Amino acid sequence: MSRTKSHEIFARAKHLMPGGVNSPARAFGAVGGEPIVFERGEGAYLFDVDGNQYIDYIGSWGPMILGHLHPAVREALHAAVDQGTSFGAPTERENGLAELIIELVPSVEQVRLVNSGTEATMSAIRLARGFTGRNKIVKFSGNYHGHVDSLLVAAGSAAATLGVPNSPGVTPGTAEDTIVLPYNDIAALDQLFEQHPDAIAGVIFEPVVGNMGCVPPMPGFLEKIREHCTHYGAVMIMDEVMTGFRVAMGGAQQLYGITPDLTTLGKIVGGGLPIGAYGGRADIMGHILPAGEVFQAGTLSGNPLATAAGIATLKTLKETDPYPKLDARTKTLEEGFKAAAAEADVPTVTARVGSMLTLFFHNEPVRCWDDAAKCDTARYGKFFWEMIERGVYLPCSQYEALFISAAHTDADITKTIEAAKQSLAALKK
Ligand SMILES: *Cc1c(COP(=O)(O)O)cnc(C)c1O
C-alpha cells in the first residue's frame, strides 16, 4: 500500500500544528509510524488521500454509529446549511434535540447543549459543586472525561489520597480537589465515603470504560456508586459521552438499569458534528444560569448544523433500532478474534459490551488501569500495522475500544477476521 501523499501532507502538518495534529489520539503515538491522512468516508469505509480503502473501526472515535455520510444526516445538514449556520439565539431544532435526549436517555429530565464532551463534563462537575456546596470530585484511574484541568489528575501514592496533576499546566491546587480511585474497586469506594462523608460533591465515571480499552463494570460496582451517592448526598455523574446511544438506545444507564443524577453526552449525540450535552434531574439542572446561578455559556452552543445532524442521527437510531444487529456482528468479530489468536498462539483476551470491543494483548481479564497497564502495547502496535496493510483501520492504541457501525456488513466482519488471522500469525514471525 502506498501512502506517499499522506506522508507529504503530514510532513507539512508537523510545521503547522503541534505534532501535526489537532488532537493527540490521532497522531499514532501509541502504535508508532505516521498517521494516515483521509479524504472521505462512506458507510463503513474510509478512503485516504492515496486512494487506499479501509474498513473503519474507529468511527471518528464513536460518533459515526450510522456509518459515514448517512443519507438522513447528509440531507438534514444540507437543509440546515441553506437556512444559515449560526444565530446565537434560540432555534426550534434545539427543542428537537433536547426532546429526543429527554425521551431516549432514562434519567434526563432537562438538558443543556454544549460543544464537546469536555465541555459537558467540565460543566457537570461545576454544577455538582455548585449544587452541593462541596469541593471534592471522585474519578477513577483509566477513565477519561476530556481535557478538563481538574480531571487530568492521576492517583497519588496511597490509594484514596488526593490526586496529583498528570499534565504540566494543571496546578497542584486544582488536582487536590480530585480524588482518584481504582475502577471496579468497591472496597476503595466504601472506604473513601466513610472517610469523607461530607466533602464529596460528585462521582464521575465511565459506566463502561472505553478509554483504557473496553472495560465493563463488574457486577455491583455501578450499584455501589449509586448507593453511596444517595446516602452521602453526592451527585452521581455518569459520563456517557462514549456509551450514550452506543451500548443501547438509552445508553449504559438503560443497559444496566442504573439512574444517575447527571449524565454527560457527546460523540453520537452530534452525529459527527461538534456537540456535547449534560442533563439529568430537573432540580439539579435548575441551578444552571439563567434559571439558577451556576455559570455556563457558549457562543455556538445548540448550533443549527450540529443539532440537525444530532436529530437526524438519533431519529434514525430510534426508527431503525440497529442495536441487536450491532451486538450480533460485534460478537461475531469478538469470536473471530479469539479463534484467530488461539490459532496463532498469541495470548490475548477480549472485552465487549454491545458494539464496543477490545482485543487486549494480555493473558488475564482487564478490570482496572493496573491490569490494562500490563498489556503488550508494542505487540498491539505491530498488529495494528499488519491490519492496516490488509485494509482494516483499528484504533491506533491498545487503550481505545473499537466500534462497529450499522453500515458494517457481515462481509466486512468476515474480511476483518481473515485479516486478523493473517496479522496475528505474522506477529509470530
Ligand atoms: C471522548 C470522551 C470525552 C471527551 O469528549 P470530547 O468531545 O473529545 O471533548 C469525555 N468522556 C468520555 C467518556 C469520552 O469518551
TrEMBL record:
Which biological processes are named by the entry's GO terms? protoporphyrinogen IX biosynthetic process
Arranged from A to Z, the UniProt key words for this protein are: Cytoplasm, Isomerase, Porphyrin biosynthesis, Pyridoxal phosphate
Task: List residues, modification N6-(pyridoxal phosphate)lysine.
Answer: K267
Recorded hits in InterPro entries, A to Z, give: 4pyrrol_synth_GluAld_NH2Trfase (IPR004639), Aminotrans_3 (IPR005814), Aminotrans_3_PPA_site (IPR049704), PyrdxlP-dep_Trfase (IPR015424), PyrdxlP-dep_Trfase_major (IPR015421), PyrdxlP-dep_Trfase_small (IPR015422)
Please name the Gene3D superfamilies in this protein's record. Aspartate Aminotransferase, domain 1, Type I PLP-dependent aspartate aminotransferase-like (Major domain)
Q: What class of enzyme is it?
A: isomerase
The protein's location, in the record's own words, is: Cytoplasm
Q: What is its EC number?
A: 5.4.3.8
Reaction catalysed by this enzyme: (S)-4-amino-5-oxopentanoate = 5-aminolevulinate
Which terms does the record give in the GO molecular function aspect? Answer: glutamate-1-semialdehyde 2,1-aminomutase activity; pyridoxal phosphate binding; transaminase activity
Name the cofactor(s). pyridoxal 5'-phosphate
Pfam families, A to Z: Aminotran_3
Q: Which GO terms describe its cellular component?
A: cytoplasm
Task: Please give the pathway this protein is involved in.
Answer: Porphyrin-containing compound metabolism; protoporphyrin-IX biosynthesis; 5-aminolevulinate from L-glutamyl-tRNA(Glu): step 2/2
Family to which this protein belongs: Belongs to the class-III pyridoxal-phosphate-dependent aminotransferase family. HemL subfamily.
How it assembles, according to the record, is:
Homodimer.
PANTHER family cross-referenced by the UniProt entry: GLUTAMATE-1-SEMIALDEHYDE 2,1-AMINOMUTASE, GLUTAMATE-1-SEMIALDEHYDE 2,1-AMINOMUTASE 1, CHLOROPLASTIC-RELATED
Q: What is this protein called?
A: Glutamate-1-semialdehyde 2,1-aminomutase
Query: Which lineage?
Result: Bacteria, Pseudomonadati, Planctomycetota, Planctomycetia, Pirellulales
